[in-house]
């Protein structure tokens, strides 16, 4: 990691498109208010293209029966599932970390939601806890993307030979575990 005098943010980066530079320029005003670690995390995300306003998720399937939440995080971040499992999974299952606290490393505005909150009307990305379709009395995690005016559901079991949520089998009961607002990045404010 560079030292304190190394510039962190440069708008004219040759690897960013003109549109990404415009978004980055508007983001720069708020960027200075973040801690140095948050700045590096955000720049790493920008380099991978995660903050692009046109970014579409690529569903990452869960590799085991208990890694649905890690697969949802990997889907949203565009990260390797094995890295997310290594960084997140054990601490999450031991109750030492939440989805929101983990996601705040990358998105400082990630919100924890109260269990009774069922409002999914804001533009953004929701991590939902839903009843498992494969394990009686079990829970499962899915991602609901509402950034582009419609609702797109990502279930990490979609590629498995298991029951999963989809347009044909929609979610009826859920809790919001985490919400990430995307208006700033989508609109370039």
Commentary on this structure:
The chain contains six helices and five strands, in the order αααααβββββα. The protein is an alpha+beta fold. It has two domains: 1-52, no CATH class; 68-187. A five-stranded antiparallel beta sheet has the order 1-5-2-3-4. Helix 3 (68-77) crosses helix 4. The longest helix is centred in the first third of the chain and has 14 residues, at 18-31. The model is unreliable at 1-14 and 184-189 (pLDDT under 50).
Give the arrangement of secondary structure elements:
Blueprint: H1 18-31, H2 36-48, H3 68-77, H4 81-93, H5 99-103, E1 111-112, E2 124-131, E3 139-145, E4 152-154, E5 175-181, H6 183-187
Antiparallel strand pairs: 1-5, 2-3, 2-5, 3-4
The secondary-structure element order is HHHHHEEEEEH
* Helix-residue proportion: 25-40%
What proportion of the residues form beta strands (DSSP E)?
Answer: 5-15%
**Tally of individual helices:** 6
Shape: globular
Summing up helix and strand content along with how strands pair, one would put the structural category as alpha+beta
How many angstroms does the end-to-end distance come to?
A: 29 Å
Q: Largest sheet, order of strands side by side?
A: 1-5-2-3-4
């Amino acid at each position: 990691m560079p030292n304190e005098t190394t510039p962190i943010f440069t708008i004219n980066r040759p690897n960013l498109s003109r549109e990404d530079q415009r978004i980055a320029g508007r983001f720069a005003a708020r960027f200075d208010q973040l801690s140095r670690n948050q700045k590096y995390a955000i720049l790493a995300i920008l380099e991978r293209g995660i903050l692009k306003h046109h970014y579409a998720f690529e569903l990452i399937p869960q590799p085991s029966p208990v890694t649905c939440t890690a697969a949802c995080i990997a889907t949203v971040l565009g990260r390797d599932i094995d890295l997310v499992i290594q960084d997140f999974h054990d601490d999450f299952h031991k109750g030492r970390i939440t989805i929101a606290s983990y996601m705040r490393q990358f998105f400082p505005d990630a919100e924890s939601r109260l269990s009774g909150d069922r409002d999914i009307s804001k533009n953004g990305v929701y991590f939902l806890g839903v009843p498992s379709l494969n394990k009686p009395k079990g829970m499962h995690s899915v991602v609901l993307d509402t950034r582009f005016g419609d609702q797109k559901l990502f279930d990490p079991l979609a590629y498995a030979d298991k029951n999963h949520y989809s347009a044909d089998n929609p979610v009826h009961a859920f809790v919001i575990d985490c919400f990430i607002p995307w208006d700033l990045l989508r609109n370039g404010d």
